[in-house]
Structures are given as C-alpha cells and as structure tokens.
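Case study 2.
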Amino acid sequence: MPTPFEVEATRQAQVSAHEGITSTSALQRAQMLLAGGPEAYALEKIREEARKQIGLVRSGVDPKSAMGPQGLTVAQAIEQHIAEPRDTPLSPRTVKQYRKLLEIYLKRIANVPLRRLDSAALVKLRAELFEHGPSIPAQAFRLLKAAWTTARFHDPKLGEFPPMPKGTMKGSPPKKPAIKRSDLSEWFEEMKSVDGQRKDMWLLGVMTGLRLGDLKSIKREHVDLTKGVLSVPKPKGGAKRAFELPLSKEAVALLRRVLRSHNSKWLWPSSKTKSGHIERPEPLRPDGFSQPWTMHDLRRVYASAATAALVHPYHLKMLMNHALPSGDVTGGYIGLEAEDLRPAQQAITDWLKQHGLPL
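Prediction:
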C-alpha cells in the first residue's frame, strides 16, 4: 500500500500532467516528495497551507473566519455576527456576554459547521443546557439563531434555522414580587431593626428603583443635592444610556445625611472590599425578616408602588431606565428631562410612606 506522501506526490504529478504543467518547479515538487520521504511530505503540507492563508489575506479575507468546505462553524458564525456592520455597534458588555455563551455553554458545538446541525442535535443541546438554569438555554439559542441568520448571508448553501419546540427562545417567566403590598407594613417594620449603611442603601433602593450595580457604585460626585438629582453615568446598556434621576424630598434628605457621615468618594464606602464600596448589601436571615428577599426585590417593590400610585407607564419606564417598546411612535416623540419626572418620583415615595416606609 502506498504511503501518504507517495499518494500526494503521485496526485501532484497527475494534476500537473492533466493541466499541461511542465514547469520545473511543479515537477521538482513531485520528485522531492518521492525522494524526501515523510519529512518532505509534512513540509509540503505546511507550505500548501501557508500558500492558502497568504492567498486569503491578499484577497481581503480574514483566515480566522474563512469558511471551510462545510460552511461556517458555530464559533465562526457567532464571531461574524459580532463583527457584522450595524447602525448601533454592540456594546462591549454584549460582546462579552456573547463570547461567554460561546466559550462556556456552546463550547461542545463551537467547531461544528452549522450545516451539520439539525433539530435533533439542537434539542439534545437544549436539554443539556437546562442543567445551568432555566434562562441559559434561551440566551444561548437566541444568540445561535441570530448568528445563523447572519451566516446565511455568507453561506448560500445554509438553510433555515432548524425547527425547535415552542418556547425555545423564551427565557424563564418573570419572577413574582417577593414582597406584596399586603406584606409591606410588616416588611418595613422589620427593616427598622437594621442599622447602618445597608438599611440606608435599601431605603434609597426602594425609593429610586435603581439596579444593584448602579446603587452600590454611587459616587459623591454623582449626587447634586441642590438640584435634587442623581447622575447614573453607566447604567445597563452603557454610557449611551446615561441619565439623570430626580429624587424625592425624602431621598434627598437621606443622601444629605449619608454624605455628611463620611468623606469617602463613594456613597457607601467599605474598607473590606477591593472596589472601596459595599459590594454585597443583600439581607441576611439573622436580620430578622420573616421572608427572604433579594436586592432586586427593591426594584420590584418600586415598580409596584409606581403602578399603585397611578404613575404614567412612560414615566415609570424612564425612571427605571427601561427602553420604550420598539416601534412605539408616540414614545419616540417624547423628550422629558429629570425635572419633568419629579412629580412621579415624589408620588412613589409618598405611596411607600403611606405603607410604612421607615424614614
């Protein structure tokens, strides 16, 4: 049986003869492979691959994302989707999340060509991903489907995304609020037994609806007590979604008291963390609460209070830094500033006070 390098040498000689190639270089390569043995064969394969890569670069193609004979792989498709030109570039946070999904949850199929994936393979993958929680399969499959759509522009042989069970792209249902209106009086009463920064942090959180990341990283420079506003420079969505949040009279009084209590640049300083501010203000069961709750429940209570206080839905979305529904023409006409939202913010705090907010 001929060895691999003998087969390759014979193939090159046959190709040269078929195409009428009689150049010295073509014939010499065939002779070298026969005479040089496996080492020459290996070297020739390296040279061949190098010539391919140089050709790709000269033609303006990125070799790392070059499509193979079976089309784009899952990893190549996702990278192509990330790099795809768009009116609004993906934020660094979104890109990081996409690559995390690829590297951790889609790793098993990262190098599999999209053309080889069918419904059975994807259903099996989805079942495996449920081990990581109910939201991971939806996140991973939304990314995979988006990358698949992008890949079809580059691979004309790639068909439609395989049919999947109903609800595959949907995440876990929204969590119900842990603290209902009927529980507020007891919850606020239990909060009175807690002292220090954490209690103040909770009170500001429930009066503003701020996300935990924004709440714990407030700096002194972000607070304008004269205007009664709080600047949020890097909310979810990045600096492009920076906004000024109006504060109720009670929230301004709380911030004034907290800022007078120390000289730190952070609103909630901590000598025990690398960041210099409190990182984990979550309630502990020994705090004396009759039911467990999370920091995100402060935001849920805020939204519930706003709805009960008849705050306009557009106002609530702006106060919570939520995007208005896509395609909402009326929402696109609205250009409100912090001062326009102040009455709504005060109404929310007033409603919370009526239900026992311990200020």
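The radius of gyration is 30 Å.
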